[in-house]
Amino acid sequence: MTRTSAGTTLTTSETSLATDGATRRLCLLQHLDGRYYWTSPNYPDPYPNHIHCGLRVISVILKIVIPRRLCNTLKWSQRVHVSASFFYIKFSTDDRIVRRGFNISIEGVSSSCHKTIQETADSQGVIELPGLSYYEKKEEHCEYRVQAPEGYQVKLTTLKLSTDTSKGCWKEYVLINLHGERNYPAVSSIIYCGSQYYQEMSHVTTGGVLSVVYKGKNTITRGMRATYSITADIS
Predict the structure, then answer these.
(1) How many CA atoms lie within 13 A of 44 on its CB side?
(2) Is residue 57 a contact partner of residue 8, using CB atoms and an 8 Å limit?
(3) If phi over 0 gives left and psi between -120 and 50 gives alpha, with beta otherwise, what is residue 169?
(4) Are 230 and 120 in contact (CB under 8 A)?
(5) For 190, phi and psi rounded to 5 degrees?
(6) What pLDDT shows up at residue 38?
(7) Is the peptide bond before 44 cis (omega within 30 degrees of 0)?
(8) pLDDT tens, position by position, for the chain (235 residues)?
(9) Which of 47, 62, 76, 105 is surrounded by the fewest CB atoms within 10 Å?
(10) Would you state the pLDDT for residue 23?
(11) Is the dihedral of CA 69, 72, 108, 186 positive or negative?
(12) Sign of dihedral through CA atoms 169, 175, 177, 180?
């Protein structure tokens, strides 16, 4: 099932379905009052065993209300922003335990720092995002996609950042993908955090698209600054 509204596209998938007699029970996707609601089968009644549901989302930037803990008993909710304009959620159940499940609301909102930049041959550019002061009490979520013309690639030449440091860079980060993959898989993406200055970098795209995601919270940081150039494809 695919639903599209106000620049947001959601697609559901079920890799396996539970069956109760002639009734097939699926995860449900609804669009009400400008928001999408994705719920587990039978919610708020217990979900069945052997359920595998997926949700793919493409938008500008998203607000997602999800359980603070993604397993065990739901006690409260949390608002979460997703930096990238594409992401995937998967829900799976085993053959033993059943619970009430989940009700996730998803809302696409506009963002001034989600941009696609169409560059010309042999040009250069800068992506610069300021840091947040402690008193701003908000998070910054940005994504830039730099597109080279046909026959050219994007080369990331320098990267300067000052963000909070955390294990796995989960608090604040700069995430880079050189292959045009909008879901930023861990095996082919590069993540940076902390106070670092990289000069003379040689990261070159493989498909002409440089994707950069930045997440900054309300800590005292100086953000990030990246420079890039458009070079001829010599592969």
Answers:
(1) 2
(2) yes
(3) left
(4) yes
(5) -120, 130
(6) 86
(7) yes
(8) 556 555 566 666 655 444 444 444 678 888 887 788 888 888 888 888 888 888 887 765 566 665 434 555 545 556 666 766 677 788 888 888 888 888 888 877 777 788 889 999 999 999 987 665 555 556 778 889 999 999 999 999 999 988 888 888 888 889 999 998 877 888 899 999 888 888 888 899 999 999 998 888 765 667 889 999 999 987 6
(9) 76
(10) 44
(11) positive
(12) positive
165 half-sphere exposure, CB direction, 13 A CA radius: 3
Which two tokens mark 138? Answer: 């908000």
Q: What CATH architecture is 114-232?
A: Sandwich (2.60)
| Strand, helix or coil for residue 186 | helix
Tell me how far apart the alpha carbons of residues 189 and 177 are, in angstroms, rounded to a whole number. 5
Q: 60 is written with which tokens? A: 């500008």
Domain spans in the chain, listed from the N-terminal domain onward: 2-109, 114-232
Beta bridge partners of residue 104, listed in sequence order: 38
**Is 2-109 a domain of CATH 2.60.120?**
yes
Any idea how long the chain is? Answer: 235
Q: Give dist(CA 30, CA 20) in Å, integer.
A: 22
- For residue 213 the two structure tokens come to 């995601």
